[in-house]
Amino acid sequence: MGSRRELEPDVLLGAYADGIFPMADETGEIEWFSPDPRAIIPLDAFRVSSNLGRSCRSGRFEVHINRDFAGVMSACAEREEGTWISRDIIEAYTRIHGLGFGYSVEVYREGELAGGLYGVALGGAFFGESMFHRVTDASKVALVHLVERMRARGFTLLDVQFMTPHLRQFGTIEIPRETYLARLQSALRQRCVFAD
Predict the structure, then answer these.
(1) Residue 193 DSSP one-character state
(2) CA-closest candidate to residue 145, choices 169, 122, 128, 124
């Protein structure tokens, strides 16, 4: 099947519900992943350093939801080392954003987009896809805001797919795929609203 059909909203959202997500390879071909182990951030164990806490309280940043979803995706795709966020991926996630499943958390400084993240929300799960920053701490501020919003709205699962040194500092853990899939099914039964 071609990548366009692969990334239609029903296929894409069905894959997320089964614990599977797409990434494009260097040629733009779509590959599907269900890592074992899977990285998640436990919402009750999320860690914020004192420096980051000060950045969040400093008033230097303004945080918004879905003001510029496409801009966040494009910024996440701008990586010197190459990216898995192809044109087809951007188009697919823009479609599910339009359907109310794709969300961006955007951080602005002096009116300019300084950092952010985007992902997919289903039930009580949020699948974090990518983040970027143009100003120090901006992506971290977005992550803090994401976790606060998820806690406030009753979400229970924050999936970040793969462990990285950057994510480890926030209390990210790895769990077996079987455990992840059980937690995912529980989260999908919830009725949570990410944005009004």
Answers:
(1) -
(2) 128
Please indicate, yes or no, if residue 194 is contained in any of the structural domains. no
Token couple for 38 = 């899977």
Distances in Å between the Cα of 152 and the Cα atoms of 31, 147, 172 are: 34, 9, 20
Two structure tokens written together for 114? 């300084």
Question: Within 13 Å and on the Cβ side, how many CA atoms surround 114?
Answer: 19
Q: What is residue 173's three-state secondary structure?
A: strand
What are the 10-residue block averages of pLDDT along the chain, 196 residues in total? Answer: 71 97 92 97 90 83 96 91 87 97 97 97 98 95 96 98 93 97 98 93
Q: Does a structural domain hold residue 193?
A: no
Based on the structure, what is the number of domains in the chain? Answer: 1
Residues in the chain: 196
pTM equals 0.94
46 domain residue, yes or no: yes
Does any domain span residue 22? yes
> Across the chain, where does the E strand assignment appear?
21-24, 30-33, 38-40, 62-65, 102-109, 112-122, 125-133, 157-161, 173-175
> Is the bond into 37 cis (omega within 30 degrees of 0)?
yes
Question: What residue has token string 């949020």?
Answer: 126
Can you give the residue range of the structural domain that contains 106?
3-188
**Residue 96 corresponds to which tokens in the numbers above?**
């599910």
For 56-72, the DSSP string reads HHSS--EEEESSSHHHH
